[in-house]
Write a structure and sequence with these properties.
Layout (H helix, E strand, L loop, with lengths): L3 H52 L6 E5 L2 E2 L4 E5 H5 L6 H5 L34 E5 L6 E8 L1 E6 L40 E5 L7 E2 L15 E3 L21 E6 L4 E5 L4 H7 L12
Length: 286
């Protein structure tokens, strides 16, 4: 029979073993989640290339007009991911959307809250799959939208500067995806292997969406595109930056359909150079 002391020793040893095992289990789980997230981005990259083969260009970051004139805050606002739906095995959802009709129109009530598993990173601790977009003037709720953890690259310039431009103006970034954009691979003179197309964004500072930029919505354009104002996961980062809940950085899709995890401590100049389509900057990136 065990003495009380021996029993306490056995319990202590078991406790130590469990304490040693748990971090390893958590690390294995996070490694699996990160791999799944990278797989999601590769599938998004494949859809982008299929869209390119079909249309001859990459989709616009978001498409918006007022009375036939370009307007960053105009209608209908559908984003880049909405254009990829036929190439992401989401043909029925795509066929339920009329991209010439406003996102907020009653005919899109189901489509705009339809969730797509491919667009979620398992490391995002926020379990929400939809969120309520508030009105820009703070007067209340505007519309409910499906969430996404992946936003397209607008570049190094502030999207906020596009607010209030009005009809007749296009909101152009130095990245691949912006207002009414139709970038070709030939226009990415920095090279596909040296240009970010899409990156991760966690829900820590707010929700992003696959649906589009809803006119009159709070930070509506930033719900579908991001900028490289700060490195990934930077403590001073803002909602429009790229981020994740991975412990060492965030995943990014490059133009050649490769996926890389960029460390949060990476050189900011290299990071910003990778975010432009035609900056001609040296990246020192391998």
């Amino acid at each position: 029979a065990f003495t009380l002391v021996e029993l306490l020793v056995v319990i202590a040893i078991i406790g130590i073993l469990i304490a040693l095992l748990l971090p390893a289990v958590q690390a294995a789980r996070e490694s699996s989640r990160r791999t799944t997230c990278q797989s999601n981005l590769r599938q998004i990259g494949l859809a982008l290339h299929l869209h390119y083969d079909n249309q001859g260009n990459l989709p616009a970051g978001w498409t918006a007009y007022t009375s036939g004139q370009p307007n960053p805050e105009g209608q209908a606002g559908w984003g880049w991911t909405a254009r990829l739906l036929p190439f992401m095995e989401q043909l029925p959802l795509s066929e339920s959307i009329d991209t010439n009709v406003a996102i907020t129109n009653a005919q899109h009530a189901d489509a705009r809250v339809t969730t797509i598993d491919l667009l979620y990173c398992a490391s995002d601790v926020d379990p929400a799959r939809t969120f309520t977009l508030d009105k820009e003037d703070g007067s209340g709720a505007l519309v409910k939208l499906a969430k996404s953890n992946y936003v397209a690259m607008f570049g190094t310039e502030e999207v906020h500067e596009c607010e209030g431009l009005g009809p007749g103006n296009q909101c152009v970034g130095d990245g691949v995806f912006y207002h009414n954009s139709s970038v070709t691979f030939g226009g990415i003179i920095d090279g596909l292997s040296y240009t970010i197309l899409v990156g991760e964004r966690s829900s820590k500072l707010g929700y992003s969406t696959w649906v589009g930029a809803v006119p009159g919505g709070e930070e509506s354009m930033l719900r579908v595109v991001g900028i490289t104002d700060h490195p990934p996961n930077d403590d001073h980062g803002h909602f429009e930056d790229f981020s994740s809940n991975h412990p060492s950085g965030a995943n990014f899709l490059l133009g050649d359909d490769s996926v890389r995890l960029f460390n949060e401590a990476m050189d900011i100049d290299v990071y910003r150079a990778l975010s432009t389509r035609a900056g001609g900057e040296p990246t020192n990136f391998h």
